[in-house]
Amino acid sequence: QVHLVESGGGLVQDGDSLRLSCATSGRGVSRYAMGWFRQAPGKERWFVAGISLVDSRTNYADSVKGRFTISRDNTKNTVNLQMSSLKPEDTGVYYCAAAPTYYYTADGRLVANWDYWGQGTQVTVPS
């Protein structure tokens, strides 16, 4: 069984930075793809960033490229999301997810079965 626990959310101002962490545990999780998703009020959950834990290949949504960085820390079994230049539209609940099966398309897009989810952490950037 895989367990994911997010932390690091909070209330920040427009232009601030914030670092989210996802603590991972469970057999085989080191070989999974990991991702961060965002869900704004009244909207569907939306892919933000992903990383392959095997080769550290990363993918980002266009709206966060250059502002967000996903990374992993194998010594602490965590996957982090460093967010900078935050905007009000970044507001939402951020979820960590794990995918035991995944592949990359010819153009480098990550396609994954996100089977495991954390409980989420709230990020609020007032307008």
Work out the number of β strands. 13
Query: Secondary-structure element order, as H and E?
Result: EEEEEEEEEEEEE
| Tally of individual helices | 0
Separation, N- and C-terminal Cα atoms: 40 Å
Low-confidence stretches: none
Tell me the β content: over 45%
- The whole-angstrom Rg is 14 Å
Q: Helical residue percent?
A: under 10%
Q: Which of globular, elongated, flat, extended, rod-shaped describes the shape?
A: globular
- Biggest sheet overview: 7 strands, mixed
Question: Quick check: average pLDDT?
Answer: 94
Structural class: mainly beta
Secondary structure topology:
Blueprint: E1 3-7, E2 10-11, E3 18-25, E4 33-39, E5 46-52, E6 58-60, E7 68-73, E8 78-83, E9 92-99, E10 101-104, E11 110-113, E12 116-117, E13 121-124
Describe the structure.
With 127 residues, the protein is mainly β. It contains no helices and 13 strands. The strands form three sheets. Strands 2, 4, 5, 6, 9, 12 and 13 form a seven-stranded mixed beta sheet that branches. A four-stranded antiparallel beta sheet has the order 1-3-8-7, with no helix packed on it. The mean pLDDT is 94.
Brief account:
With 127 residues, the protein is mainly β.
Which keywords apply here?
127 residues; 7-stranded mixed beta sheet; 4-stranded antiparallel beta sheet; mainly beta; single chain; globular
